[in-house]
Write a structure and sequence with these properties.
With 333 residues, the chain is α/β, with parallel strands linked by helices. It has nine helices and twelve strands. The longest helix is centred in the C-terminal third of the chain and has 27 residues.
C-alpha cells in the first residue's frame, strides 16, 4: 500500500513539474529618451523578480520565437491588431509573454506591465500594472512588488537568488567575444537548471554606480557588499586561464604525409561565493580540449570562422561544468 501511495505521489509531482507554464520576458519598450543601458537594466530586473510556478524562457529562445511568428520587436506585442494577434497565436513553446513599457517624464519614470496570452495574442485584463517612481534607482525596489500584484512576482520569503559576475580572463590577447559568450551561455545553462539568476547586465550597472569595477583581487568583505547591493545569496564568478584554437601539424614518416589537426583548449574555474559572508563555497575547475576533426559529419563546418570554433569550444565546456555549478547551488540552498 505504501509503495502504491509513493508511486501516486511521484506521478502527481512529475505531472505538476511538467505542467509549469512557460513565460517569456520581452525586451522593455523605451519611450521619452530612455537610454539603451537603462532598458537592459530593467530587462534584467524583470527577469530576476519573476517567480511563482513559471519557467522562464531564455532571451535567445524568445528572439527566435518572435522571429518565427513574423514579428519584429516587443512593440508588436502592445495593442496588436487582428493580424498581429493571429501571428502571436502561432507562437509555440510559451504560454505568457510579459511586456513592459518604460516612459521617462522629466526626472520621473513610469512603467506599465501587461501579460499577453500567446495562444490568443490578447492581453490578460487581470494581469496589468503601472507604477511611477521619482528616479531610476527606485525601479529595482518597486518592480518586485508590482509583479507580485499581477501574480507574476517571486514571493518575498523565497531565497536562493544567484548573481553571476563578469568572467575574469587571465589570458592576454583573448578574442573580444569570449567574455560575452561565456557569460551568455553559462546564464542559459543555469536558467535551464532552474537556478534563480540575476541577469549580468543589471549587475554591471549596479556595480559601476557603486564604483566597484575590479573584482580580480576582491576580498570577502567586498563580495559581501556586492551581495548586499544585489540582494543575492550566492555569487558565481568564472575565471578563464586558457582559451585558444590552433592548427597542429605533424609529419608522419610512415605515410610520408603531414597530418593537420585543429585543436581547441578552454581551461579555468568557477567560484561559488556565499554573498552573505563573502566566503568561498566551492571552486569548480574545468579543462576542455576539442579535436575539431571529431565533430559530427552532420555539422557543416566548411564556412566556420574562428569565432564559430570558439563558440563550439565554450558550449562543450559548459555542458559539464554548468551542471556541476547548478548542482552545487541547489545543494546549499
Amino acid at each position: 500500500m505504501l509503495k502504491k501511495l509513493i508511486t501516486v505521489l511521484l506521478i502527481v509531482l512529475a505531472v505538476g513539474l511538467a505542467a509549469a507554464d512557460k513565460l517569456a520576458v520581452a525586451e522593455p519598450i523605451g519611450k521619452g529618451g530612455i537610454q539603451p543601458e537603462q532598458i537592459t537594466a530593467i530587462w534584467g530586473i524583470l527577469e530576476a523578480n519573476v517567480g511563482g510556478d513559471f519557467e522562464i524562457v531564455s532571451r535567445a529562445a524568445l528572439k527566435q520565437i518572435i522571429t518565427e511568428a513574423g514579428l519584429i520587436s516587443s512593440s508588436d506585442l502592445v495593442n496588436p491588431n487582428s493580424e498581429q494577434q493571429a501571428r502571436i497565436g502561432e507562437i509555440k513553446g510559451v504560454k505568457y509573454i510579459l511586456v513592459s513599457e518604460v516612459n521617462r517624464i522629466g526626472t520621473r519614470y513610469n512603467v506599465n506591465l501587461t501579460v499577453v496570452e500567446s495562444s490568443t495574442g490578447t492581453v490578460d485584463p487581470n494581469r496589468r500594472g503601472s507604477i511611477t517612481v521619482n528616479d531610476f534607482d527606485q525601479l529595482s525596489d518597486r518592480i518586485g512588488d508590482m509583479l507580485r500584484g499581477i501574480g507574476m512576482g517571486r514571493p518575498v520569503a523565497l531565497s536562493g537568488r544567484t548573481a553571476m559576475l563578469r568572467p575574469i580572463i587571465k589570458q592576454a590577447g583573448h578574442p573580444a567575444y569570449l567574455s560575452d559568450e561565456m557569460t551568455s551561455k553559462l546564464q542559459e545553462t543555469l536558467l535551464a537548471d532552474k537556478i534563480q539568476l540575476f541577469q549580468l547586465q543589471s549587475i554591471n550597472k549596479i556595480l559601476r554606480d557603486n564604483k566597484i569595477d575590479n573584482l580580480e583581487e576582491a576580498e570577502p568583505a567586498m563580495y559581501a557588499r556586492i551581495g548586499e547591493l544585489l540582494r543575492a545569496d550566492y555569487l558565481v564568478q568564472p575565471e578563464i586561464t586558457r582559451f585558444d584554437t590552433r592548427i597542429d601539424k605533424k609529419y608522419v614518416a610512415a605515410s610520408k604525409r603531414t597530418v593537420v589537426k585543429c585543436i581547441g583548449d578552454l581551461n579555468g574555474s568557477v567560484r561559488i561565493i556565499n554573498a552573505k559572508t563573502g566566503d568561498l563555497i566551492d571552486n569548480i575547475n574545468f579543462r576542455q580540449r576539442i579535436d575539431f576533426s571529431d565533430i559530427s559529419s552532420e555539422i557543416d563546418t566548411s564556412e566556420w570562422t574562428p569565432e564559430d570554433y570558439g563558440n563550439y569550444l565554450i558550449d562543450a565546456a559548459l555542458k559539464s561544468v554548468g551542471k556541476k555549478i547548478a548542482a552545487k547551488l541547489k545543494s546549499v540552498e
